[in-house]
Design goal:
Length: 391
Amino acid sequence: MEWINKALNAKEQRSLFRELLPIEKIGKGRVRILAPDNPGNILIDFSSNDYLAFSEHPALLDSSKNLLHQFGTGTCASRLMSGDLSFHHHLESKVASLVGQEGALLFGSGYLANVGVITALVGKGDIIFCDRNNHASIYDGCLLSGARLIRFRHNDANDLEKKMRKERARFRHALIIVESIYSMDGDRCPLIDIIELKHRFDSFLMVDEAHALGLYGHNGGGLIEEEGVNSKVDAVVGTFGKALGSYGAFVAAPIITIKFILNRARPFIYSTALPPAVIGASLGALSLLAEHPYYRKELMENIALFKSTLTSQGIKQQLGSSQIVPIIIGESQRALNIASSLQGHGLFVKAVRPPTVQPGTSRLRLSITRHHSSSMLVRAAKVLAETIAHE
Ligand SMILES: *Cc1c(COP(=O)(O)O)cnc(C)c1O
């Protein structure tokens, strides 16, 4: 136990120790921290990915309850055994059409989808070109695949080109992996430039739309839809657990790729199928998305308001164009201190530290959701700017 103790102490000293803090969700994007020394004041949640406020929407609750009551709590087997039910196929076909692909395959979560898809597509003798800021689940898939892993500078197509020119020819298959909206930076991938390189260097392109699905594109089909490049991307990964307010994930691709992944992806083959209540919520989310396009517009207006208020309050950083607003602080301890002061002012904001982000770039990561009213956002922006100036 001695070495475990030592390792934990070292983490704590560098302000990198992580612990769970249970909260109580009290609806409408508000939370209460349940701690013995906490008076339990109500905080506005700025750390949730419930961008469209779908997780509490009656349409999702009803659709989830319907499948739950019809089909029970669990599927009790993997899809390739007796867990393959018609509602899985229904959801796959709906989500494939949302992201403009021929087919889709469900996974237990986005983490499992990334690990499963990457290990299915490439292996020893192949090469992966991975944006430096890609999500941990993408890195885990890369490492597990056994393919050669080359990281290129974040959102830098020139750096990618340089590395592809140097390395591509020595390997069999090449896979480029990017996110469309980066989870901790909130910025956009230069998809058009990456697609040009994918063609030039005969590579496969996989795009993780975890933070774009439901929010971008005419139908909420993600950044790929917004930029009209559906047919130029070889595999799209998306999750139901963020803007769609449910759980689980999928890969969407041409049918032949889906068949290939189904035959090779171990997190798909060896894991129990997603349960009825979860599929019900996801189906409800896709219907809601189609019925209420103005939800996306309202959210975008709120995001613009929040950012312009921050700027007018003296925050000088680039705030990007997405619902994810990173405020780079630098030192982990300072980021923690600011997050803790913000709690005193009724704002639930999380500090994001290494290894989730590069050392020296600890940050507050705020996400704007449809739970936030305009008056809430203006007040929050002011409190945030003041707290950063004084902490
Ligand atoms: C959240 C996230 C995932 C993981 O999705 P889960 O469904 O939460 O497991 C994968 N990729 C990116 C970019 C993410 O932000």
